[in-house]
Structure to design on (186 residues):
């Protein structure tokens, strides 16, 4: 049998499944809140689907007065934003798991609820208790939860626990193999 015939009969190795890099992106600093001391940044999870660094961000958006909601949207390379602060590698996700499985995990994480309201007695917007009443002067209030806490304490651990995101080395997307995300599949 000729070598040409033998090579035609040997099985071809299956391609490695395509993976996308996942990053934590921080923008800001954001507007200061007297009830949250220190500098704060808006935290998002970026799934880098484009060879140019573009992709899809997953985050919660809103505020402490109205509450937050989960959102997914297309994003240019985050470094192009005038508010860009940092981009930290987080892991990788199989292309076949994004966006459907990724969204399912993120949507299962409760977004931060409404946590502040206008107090007519003090004429200030203040944190309130779970029962809706305001804290008394000197009374310790519960920690406020925003996008940073949702990203770091809820979404990231859940994405790892579910194996949607794996701790692997970053991958390099080739321009011809970069897949575009279909936001209409939501």
């Amino acid at each position: 049998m000729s070598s040409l015939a033998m090579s035609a009969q040997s099985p071809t190795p299956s391609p490695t499944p395509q993976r996308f890099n996942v990053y934590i992106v921080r923008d800001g600093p954001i507007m200061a809140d007297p009830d949250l001391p220190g500098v704060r940044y808006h935290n998002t999870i970026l799934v880098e689907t484009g060879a140019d660094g573009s992709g899809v961000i997953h985050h919660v958006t809103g505020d402490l007065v109205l509450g937050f909601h989960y959102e997914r949207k297309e994003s240019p390379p985050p470094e192009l934003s005038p508010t860009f602060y940092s981009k930290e590698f987080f892991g990788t996700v199989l292309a076949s798991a994004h966006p459907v499985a990724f969204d399912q995990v993120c949507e299962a994480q409760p977004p931060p609820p409404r946590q502040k309201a206008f107090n007519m007695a003090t004429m200030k917007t203040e944190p309130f208790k779970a029962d809706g009443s305001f804290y008394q002067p000197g009374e310790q209030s519960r920690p406020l939860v925003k996008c940073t806490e949702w990203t770091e304490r809820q979404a990231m651990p859940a994405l790892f626990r579910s194996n949607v995101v794996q701790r692997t080395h970053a991958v390099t997307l080739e321009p011809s193999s970069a897949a575009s995300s279909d936001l209409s599949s939501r």
In short: Helices lie at 3-9, 100-107, 147-161.
